[in-house]
From TrEMBL:
Function summary: Part of the tripartite ATP-independent periplasmic (TRAP) transport system.
InterPro entries: DctQ, TRAP_DctQ
Transmembrane segments: 12-42, 54-71, 92-110, 130-148
Domain of life from the UniProt record: Bacteria
Membrane topology: Multi-pass membrane protein
Localization: Cell inner membrane
GO cellular component, one term: plasma membrane
Protein name according to UniProt: TRAP transporter small permease protein
Family, per entry: Belongs to the TRAP transporter small permease family.
Subunit structure: The complex comprises the extracytoplasmic solute receptor protein and the two transmembrane proteins.
Pfam families for the chain: DctQ
Length: 173
């Protein structure tokens, strides 16, 4: 394995760790918020008005940003029936075509998500009272993180740095 490929794989690992730590913290916070909401509603008979909304926004962040890790590990939906029957050169050309389409989609997701977040900044969440910019920011952040992982994977694909046993078209580990 070349130094360049090793560097790309290391960058992908560090990016995954940087994504996973806040996801774990958000997951723990979501559990505590939901548990607190249940205790206050059914034990203390004094419901927290904001707990469901906060848990919903945390779940959106976890789902969208967690998709970046899914993309890194190649666990997104794909159909390999035709791809596996192609000669190596056509398989590579198809993989590059798919990689370009995914990158284009992720760029649109990021740029349009950023615009939507800014448009939503003037609105407030009903019970939390925070700007809707923060919940809506999950879309462009997730798009940018997925795009980073995807670009690292695509560089490995183009330069021959993906091992044969790596699931195509995704894993970097």
């Amino acid at each position: 394995m070349s130094v360049f490929h090793s560097w790309l794989r290391q960058a992908a690992r560090w990016l995954e760790i940087a994504i996973a730590i806040p996801l774990v913290l958000a997951g723990g916070a979501m559990v505590l918020v939901v548990l607190g909401g249940v205790v206050f509603r059914y034990v203390l008979n004094d419901p927290l008005m904001w707990s469901e909304e906060l848990a919903r926004y945390l779940m959106i962040w976890i789902g969208l940003v967690g998709a970046a890790i899914t993309l890194k590990h190649g666990e997104h939906i794909r159909i390999n029936a035709i791809r596996q029957r192609l000669p190596a050169l056509l398989r590579l050309a198809g993989d590059i075509g798919v990689a370009l389409a995914i990158a284009w989609f992720l760029w649109i997701m990021t740029s349009q998500g950023w615009e939507a977040a800014w448009r939503g900044a003037r609105q407030s969440a009903p019970t939390l009272g925070v700007s809707m910019f923060w919940p809506l920011l999950a879309v462009p952040v997730a798009g940018a993180l997925m795009l980073l992982h995807h670009l690292l994977r695509t560089l490995l694909l183009i330069t021959g740095g993906l091992a044969e046993d790596d699931p195509e078209p995704g894993a970097l580990s």
